[in-house]
Amino acid sequence: MIFVLVYITMCNKKICIIGAGIGGLSAGFLLSRKGFDVTIFEKEKFVGGRATSLDGNKLSLKQYRNILSSYNMAVPFSDPSLEEIFNKEMLKGYRLDLGFHSIEGGTMSDFGRISQEVGYNKKMLGTRLALITEDGFDYPIVKFKDKIRFLPDILRLVYSGEKTMKNLDSVSIAETIEKHGKGRMKLILELLPRVTTTVNDLTKISTGESFRASQSNLKRGSSPVGYPIGGLGTINNALAGEIKNNNGHIFLDNEVKKILIENKKAIGIETKEKEYNFDIIIYNGLVQNFFNIADEDHFLKDYVKYLKSLKGTGSLCAYYSFRNIDPTLIGKSFLFIERNVGLTGKDIVGMIEFVTAVPEADISPKGSFIVQSYVICTPEEAKSKQILIKLKEILDKNLKILIPDYKKQLIWAIYPVIWHLDGVAKTIDNKKPDIKTPIKNLYFVGDCVKAPGIGINCAVNSAKMLSE
Fold first, then answer.
1. pLDDT of residue 104
2. Could you tell me if 174 and 215 lie in one domain?
């Protein structure tokens, strides 16, 4: 009887989620499924946050630029110009993700599994990794003979406990390479941790965090990379639909102006129209911007300074649309590493992905193929036009190795740059904040907070931790 009363009391709690990104939608779904009264406020006219998909049939140039601006993005290059692309309606029939988003672990990832829980029954398109070389590519990047050679290391990784991982949290990948990196293993350690964290500087990447992500995928037997059929927007919409089915509410185009706090306790929120009272407030946004809607006076100065000091990650992306593609490329993901380029980390890594070119991906009109790519940089580098020119040349050079006549086959190309890809970079010197804030009944979710996984998987796991 006592348990029933406690359950009813908890489920009567009114929960406000600020932001309908992956973290906010996941939290909304998990909490509404448990019977909580969930309301989500989203400042944009769509759900998904930085992991949204854009419908080329309905998108105007003005809308595109406004959306990019809202998410710390811009388009420094395109071919032809953006004006011509939109004037000639060249994006009709396409669905474009806002930035480059592949799902580490694919169908069996945390993101993939929550997608299945909300009824997304299609398998993600899985892919294996290849490495671009000077005269072609090496596929797969880890061959059978390498797996046999790596087997003792793989088994150690799979069966390592959390105590071992915690001991490795403060050990950089650079140190791990120095001690254990030889031959193919050295190359793998130079590539994969960079790709998963979107950070080039190996001295900043935690061995523990990198190995945790790999351990999770190895245990589940998942593919290295996956992509949802129909684009990320299909899963965002599925999450939003389930929240509504669970009697939750999502208010789009409704920006929260202030979080109301009294006596060290969150009590509600204020929008342009009115004030709302809530029992629990969950913030799903960039923690660096948290104090735009929360009064700093309610927090210790060190905590305010800490949140504002946290760094994100950056990259230059590229979306290419082609008339024809060599069938042997379709469905593969190609990594590349450029040595001694003079940027942070000395070497830089990127990916050119043809999984989006698979016809089943359903994100481009018949007779065209979408290829998405990105090259990693810091947020500061992402704001430098000179550096962006160099990064674009690197992307195009590696694409040309795969498609020598790519300019002849090109329909259009758009190069979005983002200087806040991951909310908070998962690096040794950039400790993510806890989900629970110092204020009672006020929480964070998303890829900015301390949760297993990186990027989208981190966002989903933060929601799971909160709901449990």
1. 79
2. yes
